[in-house]
């Protein structure tokens, strides 16, 4: 198996994991998923940088596509899968339907076993790749492996047969290949359960040895086991990342945590991706922010029209909390504080504010921040003793910027505006007209102080009971209900309205979009939260909500 073939196989798993998402049910209405963890983890070393597992039979994908995709998308997905299958089987004279489909079971696991399998940096990095495929028919899988290597030998490859720990290994020796770009590969059937392939005999021998010496394999990793106990019990896929091993890649700028595990769970409304990050013994998990047993009441003042919303408790603690730590691990370039700061960027620029000192420092209760389609922002803060001091501080800053503080009536409510007044000379008269530019608006509603970037946005807030609030929106309710409670609040993102921003901040999304077109075509929103935090780990989830079919 060469590098190109490995990444083609990895693409298969990615397509499977993204393609199955959005599915409601099949046939008898049972959701697809497995209560089991990846069995192939016994072949994977504790030190392996990456392991990705699909925990359902891959042939279910085309059935699931009948639910998640349009007829045109189904055909396109099928074509993509066939292209990948053909690429993986190129130059083998094998046919997936005839030679592979009859014996493939309920798990496919691919792993990067090492970033440099010979551990010799002088000859460049030579990663080790392992593919483990569960078999439902041991005899047919043995016949397949024999046929595969026999055809390779007939084509001129040097066939090597050897035994390791009682397992018969077949390899085509890379040193005798006519094509220098082809590195050769090895294969074996282990018991009645798995077919293994690797890009070098040594990788396969180490995989077999990991079973014989349990202390070496991933299943005995305390961090891996800890993560599994905090993740979904019924999953369709799992990803494990070992950061110390990955740090050997010079191009990677990685956080300092030990590991990250992601489990994918199907939901009648979409897909829940739960992730746990685990710190080493000498690493610090920051304090939790206060949790909420239900969505923050501050969300009741955000109109349903908002397409990005952030909510939680105690904003002043956010920058040094495990919620921020969780975001930094999952999305280093798009942290929650960056989202908050970008939303208040105009106010920060115009007023020359220090957000940490001038706003975050006095928000101790619930808060909700929402962006409207016209890019106006709404900021809702639960009133506490520090709120009055915070408003007085903003008034003082406004005065230094020569902003006028004015009270106005709006929707039977008294509002206060920070206004920049500019004199405009009247050409026909001797009088001077004052041009007013509103820099901010705030008012008190119940036990909350509401700030907006315009009078029009404040008007929407004051009409929220009539026009509908985000908290009462069925899509928002479905998204937040999919995430466990209590939690530390939500980040809700309308995909259609914000995908340009997300792709800009997270370029990997564009790459995944190519692999999982039906997934992104039907994606409606994503909602993120953090919860179930332990002494040395943080768990959170991203819920992908799909358009109703």
Structural class: alpha+beta
Which whole number gives the mean pLDDT?
Answer: 79
- How far from one another are the termini? 40 Å
List low-confidence stretches.
1-12, 18-31, 175-182, 249-255
Give me the count of strands: 20
Largest sheet: 20 strands, antiparallel
How much helix, percentage-wise, in residues? 25-40%
- As a percent range, the share of strand residues is 25-35%
Query: What count of helical segments does DSSP give?
Result: 19
Specify the overall morphology.
Answer: elongated
Query: Any idea how many domains?
Result: 2
Radius of gyration: 28 Å
Commentary on this structure:
- With 549 residues, this protein is an alpha+beta fold.
- Helices cover 33% and strands 28% of the residues.
- The chain has helices at residues 3-19, 60-68, 71-88, 96-100, 138-154, 201-212, 222-230, 243-246, 322-330, 336-343, 345-351, 355-358, 385-400, 455-462, 464-467, 474-481, 495-505, 508-515, 517-521; strands at 50-54, 104-114, 128-135, 159-164, 167-172, 186-190, 194-198, 237-242, 259-267, 270-278, 308-313, 366-371, 377-382, 404-410, 413-425, 432-445, 448-452, 490-494, 523-531, 537-546.
- It has a 20-stranded antiparallel beta sheet, sandwiched between helices.
- Strand 12 (366-371) and strand 13 form a beta hairpin.
- The longest helix has 18 residues, at 71-88.
- It is elongated, with a radius of gyration of 28 Å.
């Amino acid at each position: 198996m060469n590098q190109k073939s490995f990444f083609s196989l990895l693409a298969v798993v990615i397509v499977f994991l993204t393609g199955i998402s959005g599915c409601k049910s099949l046939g008898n209405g049972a959701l697809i998923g497995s209560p089991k963890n990846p069995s192939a983890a016994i072949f994977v070393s504790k030190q392996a940088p990456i392991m990705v597992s699909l925990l359902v039979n891959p042939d279910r994908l085309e059935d699931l596509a009948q639910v998640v995709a349009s007829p045109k998308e189904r055909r396109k997905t099928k074509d993509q899968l066939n292209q990948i299958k053909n690429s993986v089987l190129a130059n083998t004279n094998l046919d997936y339907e005839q030679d592979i489909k009859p014996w493939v079971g309920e798990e496919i696991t691919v792993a990067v076993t090492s970033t440099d399998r010979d551990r010799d940096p002088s000859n460049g990095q030579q990663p080790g790749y392992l593919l483990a495929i569960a078999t439902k028919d041991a005899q047919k899988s043995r016949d397949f492996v024999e046929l595969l290597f026999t055809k390779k030998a007939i084509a001129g490859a040097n066939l090597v047969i050897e035994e390791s720990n009682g397992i018969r290994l077949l390899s085509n020796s890379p040193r005798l290949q006519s094509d220098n770009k082809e590195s050769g590969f090895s294969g074996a059937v282990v018991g009645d359960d798995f077919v293994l392939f690797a890009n070098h005999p040594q990788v396969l021998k180490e995989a077999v040895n990991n079973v014989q010496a349990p202390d070496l394999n991933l299943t005995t990793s305390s961090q891996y086991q800890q993560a599994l106990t905090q993740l979904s019990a019924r999953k369709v896929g799992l990803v494990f990342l070992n950061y110390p091993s990955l740090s050997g890649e010079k191009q990677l700028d990685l956080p300092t945590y030990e590991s990250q595990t992601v489990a994918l769970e199907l939901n009648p409304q979409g897909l829940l991706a739960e992730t746990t990050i685990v710190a080493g013994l000498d690493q610090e998990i920051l304090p939790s922010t206060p949790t909420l047993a239900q969505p923050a009441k501050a969300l009741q003042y955000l109109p349903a029209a908002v397409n990005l919303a952030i909510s939680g408790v105690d904003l002043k603690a956010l920058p040094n909390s495990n919620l921020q730590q969780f975001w930094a691990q999952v999305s280093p370039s798009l942290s929650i504080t960056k989202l908050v700061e970008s939303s208040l960027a105009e106010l920060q620029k115009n007023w020359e504010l220090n957000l940490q000192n001038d706003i975050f420092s006095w928000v101790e209760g619930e808060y909700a921040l929402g962006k409207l389609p016209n890019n106006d922002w709404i900021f809702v803060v639960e009133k506490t003793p520090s709120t009055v001091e915070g408003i007085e501080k903003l008034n003082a800053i406004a005065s230094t910027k020569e902003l006028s503080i004015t009270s106005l009536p709006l929707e039977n409510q008294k509002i206060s505006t920070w206004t920049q007044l500019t004199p405009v000379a009247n050409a026909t008269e001797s009088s001077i007209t004052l041009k007013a530019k509103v820099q901010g608006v705030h008012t008190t509603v119940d036990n909350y102080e509401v700030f907006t970037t315009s009078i029009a946005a404040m008007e929407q807030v004051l009409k929220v009971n009539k026009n509908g609030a985000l908290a009462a929106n069925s899509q928002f309710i479905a998204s937040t209900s999919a995430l466990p409670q209590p939690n530390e609040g939500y980040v809700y993102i309308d995909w259609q309205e914000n995908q340009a921003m997300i792709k800009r901040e997270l370029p990997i999304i564009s790459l995944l979009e190519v692999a999982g077109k039906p997934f992104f075509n039907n994606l409606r929103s994503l909602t993120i939260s953090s919860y179930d935090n332990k002494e040395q780990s943080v768990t959170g989830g991203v819920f992908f909500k799909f358009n109703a079919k």
